[in-house]
């Protein structure tokens, strides 16, 4: 039984809204002729899935399931899709410096693009936002299908982009269809991987003798799970608080049920936490809390070994 780091969960609630965003950052050096430093990270539903290694000019997968995908034939298609997304409507940092009359200093061009997709309603939105030195510069208005400049220096660019019908059609096709298609495919890949590799782990924890006992289930996929308590073999739902299901970094889920019963009661009666997931049942009996050493109490609370 190992310790569960349940304190570092991502503090957002799981929703059916999926988000696929690439954040591209380009920074020039102090020297005029210096090659800009580039970084590009892509995040799917809050989870980083790949990054661009500018030195070797390659897209590097981040998650296990992405690595698996990267070793297959379709990754080439994904890479091409990504490269095209990046190349379309790209601005050079040197052009930006010129427009702002800057000859030196460290400057940053940042771009966030991608799409989100609601798998319940089917609604999707594409976005492409450009910023210079931390301020909004240009953004794509998908409703009107045109680019908007936030500052006068952006006008030459938006005028050029908005007058190119071929490019606008291309952008429309990308953000409305291709991008959402890729969210779909990536989610399917992740799902298949997590279903076969997701490992449900259950532990009982307590911060100190007077605090509630937590029954913590983690590492499961898909998200549907039930956590119940038994008192002397009978269903017990008093003094029980079932928390929301939360996503883990790796795409699996976690959920906690707390039991607020004083220790003298659970030392007298038998309490069992029952976790059911995909036809599998794990039972944890609440027994005397055993600690390995006092430091563990301070940092992790108490873990019950049962
Ligand atoms: C998608 O993610 C990006 C980056 O994290 C964020 O700025 C954007 O607001 C998100 N979109 C939605 C609809 O949540
Ligand atoms: C840059 O310099 C030009 C010519 O000197 C001037 O017309 C323009 O207003 C300047 N732009 C900014 C942002 O300072
Ligand atoms: C319009 O955009 C396409 C695709 O990005 C490009 O190949 C073409 O040169 C552009 N045309 C003009 C007139 O800028």
TrEMBL record:
SUPFAM superfamilies: Immunoglobulin, MHC antigen-recognition domain. Pfam families: C1-set, MHC_I. InterPro entries: Ig-like_dom, Ig-like_dom_sf, Ig-like_fold, Ig/MHC_CS, Ig_C1-set, MHC_class-I_related, MHC_I-like_Ag-recog, MHC_I-like_Ag-recog_sf. It comes from the Eukaryota. GO terms for biological process: immune response. One of its GO terms (cellular component) is external side of plasma membrane. The keyword Glycoprotein applies. Residues 213-287 form the Ig-like domain. Residues 1-15 form the signal peptide. Keywords: Glycoprotein, Immunoglobulin domain, Signal. SMART domains: IGc1. Belongs to the MHC class I family. PANTHER family: MHC CLASS I ANTIGEN TRANSCRIPT VARIANT 1-RELATED (PTHR16675:SF237), MHC CLASS I-RELATED (PTHR16675). This is Ig-like domain-containing protein.
